[in-house]
Amino acid sequence: MEETYKDRTSLVKGAKDIVKEVKRQAVKKVNKAVDKAQDGYTQRSYNRFQDEEDDDDYYVQGGNYGVEVNDDEGSSEATEGHDEDDEIYEGEYQGIPSMGQGKDGMVALGQPMHDEYKDRHELETERKADEEELAQQYELIIQECGHGRFQWALFFVLGMALMADGVEVFVVGFVLPSAETDMCIPNSGSGWLGSIVYLGMMVGAFFWGGLADKVGRRQSLLICMSVNGFFAFLSSFVQGYGFFLFCRLFSGFGIGGAVPTVFSYFSEVLAREKRGEHLSWLCMFWMIGGIYASAMAWAIIPHYGWSFSMGSAYQFHSWRVFVIVCALPCVSSVVALTFMPESPRFLLEVGKHDEAWMILKQIHDTNMRARGQPEKVFTVNRIKTPKQIDELIEIESDTGTWYRRCFVRIRTELYGIWLTFMRCFNYPVKDNTIKLTAVWFTLSFGYYGLSVWFPDVIKHLQSDEYASRVKHFRNEEVSHFVFNFTLENQIHSNGEYINDRFIMMKFKSVTFEDSLFKNCVFEDITSLNTYFRNCTFMNTTFYNTDLEQYKFVDSELINCTFFHIRTGCQISFDDDYSAYWIYFVNFLGTLAVLPGNIVSALLMDRIGRLTMLGGSMVLSGISCFFLWFGTSESMMIGMLCLYNGLTISAWNSLDVITVELYPTDRRATGFGFLNALCKAAAVLGNLIFGSLVGITKAIPILLASTVLVCGGLVGLRLPDTRTQVLM
């Protein structure tokens, strides 16, 4: 009995020795695979290896001592099905971790330390090192993919979105006079439309830019352009001014995300030597949007025949048709974006290796087929992905209501956007953010301020000339006469009109003062800027006219009758020279930036971004002094074209510098913040420069010149990014 017990003890001891040898051999092979993969074995392999250890212990404890163990099977399931030459994608889906992983706080032999055992500083240090390695590798990959059909297709798709942004800016100025007249807006509320659109664009730029760093460039751009298109279409049909302001506010909120997202998106599929030039070419679509808006305004708004009405309550005038036409670039960009992939650089940044690899392969294959080299193979097998630092939150999925969960999700996303924004003020991008803030603010303040001041000065010169040609008629006595022609730019004082008929007439800027109308008939009358001040009407009939009560200022109506009065303000552009002139001036001012766009695109990578930025802003500031000699409309238009042509190079270089100075995880957020600051500076410039129209030229000239020159000098202090890869 004792001998049997000894034999059994020796058998158990031998089995344990065999199991230990199996473990030792398995660890050696695992370490060999780790060394070959360079970045450590995948989590799945370690999970399976750890499970194998647990299984071995189970066999020993269960008394299966008689099982014969072969050394050749010591590789375990961790390496089964894997060849030593196989590449392992970092970021590849690793499956659900096993329950035994990390048991009792132990780390399996051959495994790196789990992230839960590291503090946040260590994780951020590892992520920073990974990002630096990714930046260098990604540049090489983009160069291998080449520049071809894919980039050009994306160029035109994103160009349509940028064109929609340019259209939105010009739409405000073009529809403002018509919309205010059509909706009978008093002068006290006339400035709200322009300001509220810029307010929406300011908030939208910050929000959509931050969202692009959270959910992706393509996704964010699709949503913001859809919001813009929907509310732009809706605004063309609403009748009330309050609802119209609401629609244009959200339309501006949507389009505000176009600029930061478009430039971040396109820069991430361009190689270093192509980036400056092609981002500058992309800027031309903003100019094309301005030309498109000017041409459509000139072709549609002044033509009264482009309108219809349904009774007196619903009026659909030509400016509403213009608003619909201006939404077409936005709709086109949304449709085209559905066929484009996400930015692969963003996907790598958030750890989606396989999706990014497939898109990069698509870019490579598309360009190679276009070159006639379809047999060329995409040689990249593994791309470095930065270590992901998860921010876990708890949402009441079981007990909370759906709107509670939505509220928590929205709050979490907004908080994430805010945290990303605050990181724009951390080292090493803090100094760059402060300098870019100064440059963006000064350039926007000077450019938009003078851009508003120029047209206002031209309109002021036109109004002075128009007022100088007014005709005065005093002490008229007209009886039994039929007026059936147009009266324009006239003032009639102390007149008497007895038994007269005013039939099928148009009154344009006509004022009757201290006059008497007795036994008269007004029939089929259309009036614009026409008023009766301190007049007396006796036994007078009004039929199918737009002469409402507010046009009779301190007047007395005795025994008068009104039939079929047309309510609402009436718009008429027939023979309206000033309307055509304003659109033509904006068209010339927008077209003048074409030479500057071409020059900046060709020289951006040759002379450098900083030289282009500083030189353009300084020259723009100097050109402001030529405004002293602008005493006529033609001279002011020439100065406007010169100014726009010089400043466009600064805008293009500033866009390129901004996307290159920020790392991928906060590129769109930083750009969105600066673009929001741009809109705030534009509103401030509009208020300050607009208040000085007709008062003095000295203050606008000195103010614009000073801020532009100072901003250009600050821009020269920015780091040169011409030879850098995208961080």
UniProtKB/TrEMBL annotation:
PANTHER family: SYNAPTIC VESICLE GLYCOPROTEIN 2, SYNAPTIC VESICLE GLYCOPROTEIN 2C. Belongs to the major facilitator superfamily. SUPFAM superfamilies: MFS general substrate transporter (SSF103473), Pentapeptide repeat-like (SSF141571). GO terms for biological process: chemical synaptic transmission; neurotransmitter transport. The chain crosses the membrane at residues 152-177, 189-208, 220-237, 243-267, 279-301, 321-340, 436-454, 580-603, 610-629, 635-659, 671-692, 698-718. Residues 64-85 are annotated as: Disordered. It is found in: Cytoplasmic vesicle, Secretory vesicle, Synaptic vesicle membrane. It comes from Otus sunia. It is a multi-pass membrane protein. GO terms for molecular function: transmembrane transporter activity. Residues 154-722 form the Major facilitator superfamily (MFS) profile domain. GO terms for cellular component: synaptic vesicle membrane. It comes from the Eukaryota. The keyword Transmembrane applies. Its main location: membrane. The lineage of its organism: Eukaryota, Metazoa, Chordata, Craniata, Vertebrata. Keywords: Cytoplasmic vesicle, Glycoprotein, Membrane, Neurotransmitter transport, Phosphoprotein, Synapse, Transmembrane, Transmembrane helix, Transport. This is Synaptic vesicle glycoprotein 2C.
